[in-house]
Amino acid sequence: MRAFARFCPFFRLLKSRAQIQWGRAGGIAGAVHVLREISAEVSRRSQVAGRLERERQLLRHANRTLQAIRDCHQAMLRAGTERELLDEICRIIVQSGGERMVWVGFAEKNSCKSVRPVASAGVSSEHLKIAQVSWANVPRGRGPVGTAIRTQRASVCRNTQTDPNFAPWRASARRHGYGSVLALPLLADQCCFGALAIYAPEPESFDAGEQLMFTDLANDLAFGIHTLRLRAERAQLEDEILKSSEREQERIGRDLHDGLCQLLVGAKFRSVYLQKISGDRPRTVAREAKALETLLNHAIEQARNLARGLNPVHVTPAGLVAALQKLADDVESAQRVHCFARFPKPVDIRDHHTTYHLYRIAQEAVQNAIKHARAKNISIAVTQSDHRLRLVVKDDGVGLPRVPRKTGMGLNNMRTRARIIGGRLEISRRRLGGTTVSCELPANEKNDHGTSH
């Protein structure tokens, strides 16, 4: 029987059971073989195995989704710009989450209510070029992305080849291997400004738990975008305020130079003429005229210094060097503090915007050293290479307090100026006492810095 079943496919689907029948004389009279078909059992075991494999696949997919979401949250903490954040989120969901394609679109306020792609990753470039997604209630606006923006709720296309609302993109989905789509609205201030779209290779890919996890991710992404936009608006406002202040200072400086200084010079000439015409008159007239001339000389010098201080850096490649040298000389003569400027190599910075902010940072650092640190020696140094530009102000004062105090306006101004020109401000205690203030920034074409040779 076993030999026969080995060669007969039918017997391999059967289970046999033999029962011997004994005769009256005690011998074997015969045997009864009971054959039972086992195809149903094989089918049941196959179904169980398929279900277990499906559950393992779902578990692996869920783990990849969780890992992608964790990586996305880390990216949100590191991102410095909106574009950097969006590109990184799309890349992570594709690479870590195993999705076919991810893109982010912003809702335009135009007449056709179009959705503008701003970031994507995966198999996406050709599809997005022809997608022409809208968020209006039209055929190209009833897909998952348009529906998510219009209703401000998550929208799922469970099967791109059977969902009637996905008909405008069905051929592209078949060509690029998109099986299902999950679109999530990006909300800020109770307004939907875009959507995050995730394309999976298999139909029915997004269950309720996965939709909930991606919804939380989209909400966090929207908050991150909103925060970065507020930060950018604040930075732009600060930049505009500083530029407005610079323009006003330049105007006052010109008015002082062209107006008050000229009047004082005219008064000085009149005092000199007064001395000449005094002749043989009493010496008191000549003495008073001389005193008036001296006073006017001081007034002229102070007015000119004030005008130069309002616009200290001349628009020349070496303007920063000259301005910092003048700053050191003025402090040396007026404050009874030993202050010197040091430039190991020629410094060639052609961007007036950069030189102006660097000068103001150095000026603020020097004033803090005199006023708060009670320094006796201050050094100002600028070094420049092919890649970095560095301004360093050192003093031998009392140094930074052990317990940090509330940040003052001067320190905030220095940090703002450093950020505006793309630099990084650092303030540290010196090992032997005193404070070091440094501002370092890239010396490249992006920041319009010349290169010293």
Task: Draw up the topology in text.
Blueprint: H1 2-7, H2 9-12, E1 14-22, E2 28-37, H3 39-78, H4 82-95, E3 101-107, E4 115-122, H5 125-131, H6 144-151, E5 155-157, H7 170-176, E6 180-188, E7 191-200, H8 208-278, H9 283-310, H10 319-334, E8 338-342, H11 352-371, E9 377-384, E10 388-395, H12 409-420, E11 424-429, E12 435-442
Parallel strand pairs: 8-9
Antiparallel strand pairs: 1-2, 3-4, 3-7, 5-6, 6-7, 9-10, 10-12, 11-12
Description:
It is a single chain. Strands 4-3-7-6-5 form a 5-stranded antiparallel beta sheet, with helices on both faces. It folds into 4 domains: 2-37, no CATH class; 55-206, 2-Layer Sandwich (Beta-Lactamase); 237-311; 314-447, Histidine kinase-like ATPase, C-terminal domain (Heat Shock Protein 90, 2-Layer Sandwich). It has helices at 2-7, 9-12, 39-78, 82-95, 125-131, 144-151, 170-176, 208-278, 283-310, 319-334, 352-371, 409-420; strands at 14-22, 28-37, 101-107, 115-122, 155-157, 180-188, 191-200, 338-342, 377-384, 388-395, 424-429, 435-442. It is α+β, with helices and mostly antiparallel strands and 453 residues long. Helices cover 51% and strands 20% of the residues. Mean pLDDT is 78; it is low at 10-14 and 445-453. The chain has 12 helices and 12 strands.
